[in-house]
Design a protein that fits this description.
Blueprint: E1 8-13, E2 19-22, E3 29-32, E4 37-41, H1 42-50, H2 54-57, E5 68-70, H3 73-79, H4 95-101, H5 107-117, H6 121-132, H7 139-149
Antiparallel strand pairs: 1-4, 1-5, 2-3
Helix pairs in contact: 5-7, 6-7
Length: about 150
């Protein structure tokens, strides 16, 4: 499929703070508010990915744990973040995915999954915010998460 690089698609800030970067294709700064979406051209998104902007490419250069999620699958494929033929999907950690690990049945499973899911400082800040706002009602898991973050609750 051929992409129209002038078309705009939505990108989502998965962090609970502003993210900002300098546009490559235009002379402007782009700021995305916490947990919000903004339209960007596919050309700009692909340029940011190919330039190695960590907000887009994450911790492995393939989009894992990125702070900016591209809502368009064709663009994610173009950037190398997904491959439908090989069933490879981009791993994004947002508030909902963090809340989902609190639904694991056992404390042992939760403790095992926590360091696999929460790797970046942004993800740790998001987990801390969830704990501080009392968004989970499992004290054992909340204490385990606080211990992982080295904070007290």
């Amino acid at each position: 499929m051929e992409l129209d690089f002038n078309k705009k698609v939505l990108v989502r800030n998965t962090a609970n703070h502003n993210v900002a970067f300098r546009a490559i294709n235009t002379a402007q700064d782009i700021v995305i508010s916490p947990s919000s979406k903004t339209p960007l051209t596919i050309a700009e998104i692909v340029s940011q990915a190919y330039a190695g902007n960590k907000l887009f490419v994450g911790i492995d250069g393939k989009g894992s744990h990125a702070q900016i999620y591209i809502d368009d699958q064709d663009t994610r494929v173009e950037c190398g973040f997904e491959d439908p033929a090989r069933d490879i999907k981009q791993e994004i950690v947002d508030k909902q995915s963090i809340l989902d690990i609190f639904n694991l049945k056992t404390l042992a499973a939760f403790k095992k999954e926590l360091p696999n899911k929460i790797k970046t400082d942004t993800e740790k800040r998001l987990l801390r915010s969830i704990l501080e706002n009392n968004e989970v009602n499992d004290l054992g898991k909340a204490k385990a998460a606080a211990e992982y973050l080295d904070i007290k609750i």
